[in-house]
């Protein structure tokens, strides 16, 4: 069992599903967020309010930590000036503070938006070149490269989870991109438990018949998703309107993020159900 894990973004929707399983993997789970709290705490969990864009607040979390599960960020497209602190500086702060305190590995919530302008039909693998669709996606590219540099220069491991759609299936695109919460937990668990990861990238997607990406070169992580969005296909498609192949929002991996103007919300065009786990 690990001695200490740190979870950033613990008050977020995905963080709410990760807290309990992470608490079972370590003696102490430190959950942190810019929000004031996360609800009731698990037996070995403590909460620390912190702003990841401030180095001193991040550094104070890292003492004695084995690994960091870094999910803290602005999770939508916003103007560059707004995303710079949490998503760019915040990532640097986590890696640098972690390095100074001997953190062995960081598991990072990257995103499909790091490669969001690739055509969906190309079935890209984890070694596809970056093609960000937004400033949000650009921040994911930055952090993936940051993690690679810290591995190659400082031997600090990291796993970058390019999450596709970790939300309820409410539209046709999600039949390919869905990541169930159970598969999310398995994905993070594999990223923590795999003995050697060096610098790794893996797509966060369930075992969907229509999955638009290929995880073959990430098999060393042992991720074997169980769920398949095809069980929702009949219901989703019966009233679905034909997609426009000339619309990047329909033809590119980034979906709506591929068609919005830079700095404009991508989530505003999506039907995301807020089913955060309540503790």
UniProtKB/TrEMBL annotation:
Gene3D superfamilies: NAD(P)-binding Rossmann-like Domain (3.40.50.720). It comes from the Bacteria. InterPro entries: Epimerase_deHydtase (IPR001509), NAD(P)-bd_dom_sf (IPR036291). It holds the Pfam family Epimerase. One of its GO terms (molecular function) is oxidoreductase activity. Residues 6-163 form the NAD-dependent epimerase/dehydratase domain. Keywords: NAD, Oxidoreductase. SUPFAM superfamilies: NAD(P)-binding Rossmann-fold domains. PANTHER family: 4-EPIMERASE, PUTATIVE (AFU_ORTHOLOGUE AFUA_7G00360)-RELATED, NUCLEOSIDE-DIPHOSPHATE-SUGAR EPIMERASE. Belongs to the NAD(P)-dependent epimerase/dehydratase family. This is 3-beta hydroxysteroid dehydrogenase. It comes from Neptunicoccus cionae.
């Amino acid at each position: 069992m690990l001695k200490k894990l740190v979870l950033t973004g613990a008050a977020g929707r995905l963080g709410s599903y990760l807290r309990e399983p992470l608490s079972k993997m370590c003696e102490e789970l430190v959950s942190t967020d810019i929000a004031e709290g996360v609800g009731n705490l698990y037996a070995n969990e403590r909460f620390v309010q912190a702003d990841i864009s401030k180095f001193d607040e991040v550094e104070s979390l890292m003492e004695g930590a084995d690994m960091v599960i870094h999910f803290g960020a602005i999770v939508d497209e916003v103007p560059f000036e707004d995303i710079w602190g949490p998503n760019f500086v915040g990532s640097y702060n986590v890696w640098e503070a972690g390095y100074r305190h001997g953190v062995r590995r960081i598991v990072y919530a990257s995103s499909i938006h790091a490669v969001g302008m690739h055509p969906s039909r190309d079935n890209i693998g984890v070694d596809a070149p970056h093609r960000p669709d937004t400033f949000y996606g650009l921040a994911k590219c930055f952090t993936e490269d940051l993690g690679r540099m810290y591995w190659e220069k400082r031997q600090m491991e990291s796993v970058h989870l390019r999450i596709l759609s970790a939300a309820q299936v409410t539209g046709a695109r999600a039949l390919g991109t869905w990541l169930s919460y159970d598969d999310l937990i398995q994905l993070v668990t594999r990223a923590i438990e795999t003995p050697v990861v060096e610098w790794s990238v893996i797509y966060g997607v369930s075992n969907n018949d229509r999955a638009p990406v290929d995880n073959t070169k990430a098999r060393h992580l042992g991720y074997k998703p169980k769920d398949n969005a095809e069980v929702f296909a009949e219901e989703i498609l019966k009233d679905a309107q034909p997609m426009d192949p000339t619309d990047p929002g329909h033809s590119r991996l980034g979906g709506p993020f591929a068609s919005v103007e830079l700095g404009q919300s991508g989530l505003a065009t999506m039907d995301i159900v807020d089913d955060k786990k309540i503790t």
